[in-house]
Amino acid sequence: MIAFIEYSKTLDLSKASDLRKFKLVNLLMLIMNVWTRALHFGYIVIQIILVWYRDEAWMFLKTSALPIITFTLFNAFVSVIPTYQRFMKFLHKSIEHESLPKDASEKMRRQSVANLEMVANEMLMEGSLDMNDRVQLFFQSLEKREKMDRRQTMPAQKINWRSAKFMRALSTPVISTHDD
Q1: pTM of this structure
Q2: Model confidence pLDDT, tens digit, residues 93-137
């Protein structure tokens, strides 16, 4: 993982070939992260739990539940999900850059390259952090989230009373009055 991060620091994103290499490196990092932190870890945990269950090692199962849940959540929220989010963020910015029309102004092209480099630097900075710094960044991102005022999320809609009566009529059960 560190080798990929260091290699990606040497790439010039304004060149099309280096941009493709950068996208490939990020894809490989995502695949490795999902494989090692999610799939392989899950497989190993399941195998260990099955052995303890077959051996009726109830004390091991009870005492290992909290660490297994903790490490699973850690792998998901500190490693796999942030890697996926960074990959998708860069992918969208690179698609935006590649889809610029041929007659785009020089200012627009420079801005697009600057956006790419900014996202790439964020990815590289976060990728080179040790685990303590990653956890700290994760908790800071949770604190920065603003509470959303629910009243402003969706405009109030006028109720169509005819439609409401029709839906109410359809939802009432039909009671048969004749005996069979």
Answers
A1: 0.58
A2: 777 767 667 777 777 777 777 777 777 777 666 655 666 776 776
Of 94, 123, 116, 117, whose CA–CA distance to 20 is shortest? 94
Contact indicator for 38, 62 with CB cutoff of 8 Å: no
Domain coordinates in residue numbering, the chain? 2-143
117 to 7, 42, 141: CA distances (angstroms): 15, 35, 22
CB-based contacts of 35, cutoff 8 Å, min separation 6: none
Instruction: Give kind and range of the element (H or E) at residue 47.
Output: helix 41-54
Measured over all CA atoms, what is the biggest interatomic distance in the chain, rounded to whole angstroms? 84
Number of residues that make up the chain: 180
Q: Is residue 109 within 8 Å of 100, Cβ to Cβ?
A: yes
- The torsion angles phi and psi of 154, rounded to 5 degrees, stand at -145, 130
Question: Using CA atoms, how far apart are residues 36 and 45, in angstroms rounded to an integer?
Answer: 12
Asked whether 87 and 30 are in contact (CB, 8 A), the reply is yes
Contact between residue 7 and residue 25 where contact means Cβ atoms under 8 Å apart:
yes
